[in-house]
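ARCHIVE CARD
CATEGORY: sequence design from structure
SOURCE FIELD: tokenized fold
FIELD CONTENT:
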């Protein structure tokens, strides 16, 4: 069976997986990223891909797929803009093609790759209209409409995290706008909600004195345990998440919205917190006709989708070659 290497490039680490055409992950190689400069990140990608290449035969390998944060030029693989890395117009595709000359190299947005993976092998399988939300440090996404992954005029379709839900009183987003969905309802958003309500809980021990040690998972677990401070933060976070999800229902009217990424490990605790509110906010589409689920592939969706891009000959739900 044919194989490809799928790379998920994140803000804190990068992972390369050797993936079969049926979506099975044969091996994974991960490396933390501490320096987000272009040269350092490229070196990290080269290291994990090099480790993956040692486990494959060139005759079986279709190519190398890279999922990177940011707006990607679909022809060259250049990253035109990535607020996560503070990159503008960096030649990621060209640089990696020079490094791995014997392989076909594809580069696309990481969340769109994850959507392709989850649609092909996860909760989107069998649907025609599907949306994936990747909830982590930020919020990424991808939209499948009538069986086709939407790319957009300049490869920007699916930037769900940057529609504004609180444009006057929200948190400042990394993109510079106020109240983006990402700023309010990502893991970072949950931490900011905890900080915002902290003055109302002067005796709370929820937040450590060192801000760098604050984590969204810690806050979520405290909310599950009944901590008053964490519960207040979680309630505000869930309200914003539901608002953004309801907007997506209205914009796209999908059969399924899958929540993926690290924050989605909250599972039913998260779904139970937003389902009723999403229904309340849904008006122009029949209520309860969009199914909210936790993504099946979890953090592996990006790698699987990036590899699938190689098998398909591009970022598409259609079999290309």
């Amino acid at each position: 069976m044919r194989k490809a290497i799928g790379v998920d490039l994140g803000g804190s680490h990068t992972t390369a997986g050797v993936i079969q055409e049926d979506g099975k992950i044969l091996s994974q190689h991960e490396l933390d990223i501490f320096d987000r400069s272009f040269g350092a990140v490229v070196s990290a990608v080269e290291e994990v891909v090099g480790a993956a290449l040692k486990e494959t035969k060139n005759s079986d390998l279709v190519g190398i797929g890279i999922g990177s944060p940011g707006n990607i030029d679909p022809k060259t693989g250049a990253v035109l803009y990535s607020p996560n890395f503070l990159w503008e117009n960096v030649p990621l595709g060209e640089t990696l093609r020079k490094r791995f000359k014997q392989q076909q190299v594809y580069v696309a947005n990481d969340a769109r790759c994850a959507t392709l993976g989850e649609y092909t092998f996860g909760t989107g399988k069998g649907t025609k209209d599907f949306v994936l939300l990747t909830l982590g440090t930020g919020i990424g996404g991808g939209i499948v409409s009538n069986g086709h992954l939407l790319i957009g005029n300049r490869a920007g379709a699916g930037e769900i995290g940057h529609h504004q839900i609180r444009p006057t009183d929200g948190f400042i987003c990394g993109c510079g706008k106020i109240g983006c969905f990402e700023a309010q309802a990502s893991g970072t958003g949950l931490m900011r909600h905890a900080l915002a309500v902290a003055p109302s809980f002067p005796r709370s021990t929820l937040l450590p004195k060192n801000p760098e040690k604050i984590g969204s998972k810690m806050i979520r677990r405290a909310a599950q345990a009944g901590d008053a401070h964490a519960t207040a933060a979680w309630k505000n976070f869930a309200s914003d998440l539901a608002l953004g999800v309801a907007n997506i229902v209205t914009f796209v009217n999908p059969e399924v919205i899958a929540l993926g990424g690290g924050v989605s490990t909250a599972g039913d605790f998260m779904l139970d917190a937003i389902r009723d509110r999403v229904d309340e906010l849904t008006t122009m589409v029949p209520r309860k006709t969009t199914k909210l689920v936790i993504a099946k592939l979890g953090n592996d969706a990006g790698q699987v989708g990036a590899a699938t891009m190689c098998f398909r000959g591009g970022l598409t739900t259609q079999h290309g070659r």
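CARD ANNOTATION: The longest helix spans residues 228-252. The two ends are 14 Å apart (CA to CA).
SHELF: design records, drawer C
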